[in-house]
Design goal:
The chain is 62% helix and 3% strand. With 309 residues, it is mainly α. It has two domains: 160 residues; 131 residues, no CATH class.
């Protein structure tokens, strides 16, 4: 049986039908989820409270902390520092509005500006401690949500970097569209599930589903093959897969996931497969591209048999 999880379009939500959920979070550049925004705001609020040292009156910040707020918001809002309202309730309102309502890049700017501000103040030690805690919590939040951006705290100043390029994301999206247009519902379902597993941090399961997507395409093309290996052999003999090196390369990747120490079988001396987000993202992109390659080759072969263009 090739795939018992195929679903018709009527079973899919709007976002699934229109490809909004077919990509893992790390490939959704220029997006920050509502859940992650909420966590960023919570951590920012804790930071602001911590540097107020418990003073929550109308003018919350002491002179040193006031200067810190003026510099950060002055740069963020492109306003002169002496025009920044540093009243406690107003400061929290501005930060919250930017983090929850503004563009993704403004959210990243908020975090970076807080972390980039060096201290030359009387309260520098306490402020630096609060900054370090804020940095660690933000980094963990972005990791926990498998966001499209990651915070590099290995050197000063900490900076955000994208996990993938726009080109990589567009290439993968195009591959998924090719698979869908080719009528490979099983493969499309597996790739959607692989993306969901990445977002849930189930990286081993994501790799398994990515491999299943290729298996589904290969076995749809050659129903006689029961596993990917024989299917690739058959596709090579029929001329669909013309490059032996490409077939060998994917066979080795398949072997990595399928041997006794691999993804699909329990490890002998570990509780779970030793894979991470980078492994899952590589396999997702590689399998989507390879599956689309097989679909295109199969289409051309079928057109040749029928005498089509």
């Amino acid at each position: 049986m090739i795939d018992n999880r195929e679903r018709s379009d009527k079973d899919l939500t709007f976002s699934q039908r229109n490809d909004y959920k077919s990509m893992p979070e790390p490939m959704r550049l220029e997006e920050i989820s509502d859940d992650l925004r909420r966590e960023i705001w919570n951590e920012t609020r804790r930071f602001l409270i911590s540097i107020s040292f418990g003073n929550v009156t109308y003018s919350v910040f002491e002179s040193d902390e006031t200067r810190f707020i003026e510099r950060v918001l002055g740069r963020l809002l492109n306003k002169p520092e002496d025009e920044i309202n540093t009243r406690y309730d107003r400061v929290l309102y501005i930060f919250k509005e930017i983090i929850q309502e503004s563009s993704f890049y403004n959210v990243l700017d908020v975090v970076e500006l807080i972390l980039h501000e060096k201290y030359q103040l009387a309260t520098a030690q306490k402020l630096a401690a609060a900054q370090n805690k804020f940095s660690a919590e933000i980094r963990r939040s972005f990791e926990r949500h498998t966001a499209a951006y990651w915070l590099d705290t290995s050197s000063f100043p900490p900076r955000f970097f994208p996990r993938s390029t726009r080109m990589q994301g567009e290439a993968t999206r195009s591959a998924i569209e090719t698979i869908r247009d080719g009528g490979m519902k099983g493969a499309e379902t597996h790739l959607r599930q692989a993306a969901e597993n990445v977002n849930a941090r189930q990286f081993a399961n994501s790799i398994t589903d990515s491999i299943h997507a290729v298996e589904s395409v290969a076995r749809t093309i050659d129903p006689e093959a029961k596993t990917l290996g024989p299917a690739l052999d058959s596709l090579q003999r029929s001329g669909v897969l013309k490059h032996p090196a490409l077939k060998e390369a994917f066979s080795k990747l398949y072997g990595y996931t399928n041997d006794e120490q691999g993804i699909r079988h329990p490890l002998l001396d570990k509780d779970s497969p030793d894979v991470d987000l980078d492994d899952a993202m590589f396999m997702f992109g590689a399998c989507a591209s390879f599956a689309a390659y097989l679909v295109n080759k199969h289409r051309k072969a079928e057109q040749g048999k029928s005498g089509g263009p």
